[in-house]
Amino acid sequence: MGDVLTTAEMDAIRRRLEAVTPGRWREGNIPGTVVADTEEVPEGGGPTAEVVQRYGGVPVASDVGRADLEFITNAKEDIRRLLLDRQALLERLALLEERRWSQGGV
To answer: Regarding predicted confidence, which is higher, 49 or 75?
Structure first.
C-alpha cells in the first residue's frame, strides 16, 4: 500500500465505516469502555438488553486507556468527515483540471 489511497482502498474504508455498530460512540458506564448510543441490539450473537443497560449502550471496546478512548469515540465521525473532505477536494481538483484544459492549458 502506497502513500496515496486508491479508489479501491477508499471504498474499503467506506465499507468498514458503514459496517460498524451504529450510533454515536462515547464512554460507557463502566470506566475504560466505549459504547454506541443505539437502540439497535444486533441480532444473532449481539449483546443482551441487560448488557446494553449495564454498559450504557452497545459495547464497542473495553479496557482502553484515555487516549485510545478519545480516539475510538471520535473515529467514526472523524473518518466520515475526512472522506467527505477528500471527496470535495477531488471534485475541486477535477474542476480546476477541466478549466485548465478548456483554456488551452498543458
So the answer is: 75
pLDDT attached to residue 105: 65
Instruction: Write down the pLDDT at residue 41.
Output: 64
Cβ contacts of residue 68 below 8 Å, gap of 6+? 61
Domain count, the chain: 1
Q: Is residue 2, in this structure, part of any structural domain at all?
A: no
Helices 7-19/66-102 angle, 10° precision: 140
Give the range of the structural domain holding residue 32, as residue numbers without chain letter: 7-102
For residues 81 and 64, give the distance between their C-alpha atoms in angstroms, rounded to a whole number: 24
- Helix ranges (H only) for 29-65 are 49-55
36: left (phi over 0), alpha (psi -120 to 50) or beta: beta
Q: What is the reported pTM?
A: 0.77
